[in-house]
Amino acid sequence: MELHPFLLLFELRRAVDVLERTLMTRLDAADWPRLTVTQVLLFVHLQPEGVTAAELARRMGMSRQSMQKNLDRLRELNLVTLQPHPRDRRSSLVTRTPDGARFAQAAAQVLDGFERRLEAALGTDAVNQARSVLTADFDEVLRTGQKANGR
């Protein structure tokens, strides 16, 4: 049977949809505020010492305006705070509030549960290999046809 060229993209998208839907359902069931997936994933990039909104936007591949809208929502919910940047008066540092830290922990527990279930079903080696493939620099791989970053 010949595989359709769109099959890989379709299956990756389907897997992401299932993971996103399950994540949001479980966070909702735990009485966390309803957030977008983007707003949840933003917590991955927050650091204890803080990070600027511009850096968050760059890391997540979105515009500064979109990032600001997401941060405004998270501030309304008391999940993040913006503090003056100690070295750049034009910038603010985004940090988690105590509620934001609890939210990030709850989301991490759900995601860790996903990984454990995948490992139980597929094996640790398969999950590690998938992680390696999915963390590759796809732009570089597609541009050059070579492994990126020495991987």
What does this protein structure show overall?
The model has no long low-confidence stretch (mean pLDDT 89). Strand 2 (80-84) and strand 3 form a beta hairpin. The chain starts with 6 loop residues before the first helix and ends in a 7-residue tail after the last helix. The chain has a three-stranded antiparallel β-sheet. The protein contains seven helices and three strands. It has 151 residues and is mainly α. Helix 1 (7-29) packs across helix 5 (98-122), helix 3 packs across helix 4 and helix 5 packs across helix 6.
| Helix and strand run | HHEHHEEHHH
Share in β-strands: 5-15%
Mean pLDDT metric: 89
Total number of strands? 3
Rg from alpha-carbon coordinates = 18 Å
Outline the secondary-structure elements:
Elements: H1 7-29, H2 37-42, E1 51-52, H3 53-60, H4 64-76, E2 80-84, E3 92-96, H5 98-122, H6 124-134, H7 138-144
Antiparallel strand pairs: 1-3, 2-3
Helix pairs in contact: 1-5, 3-4, 5-6
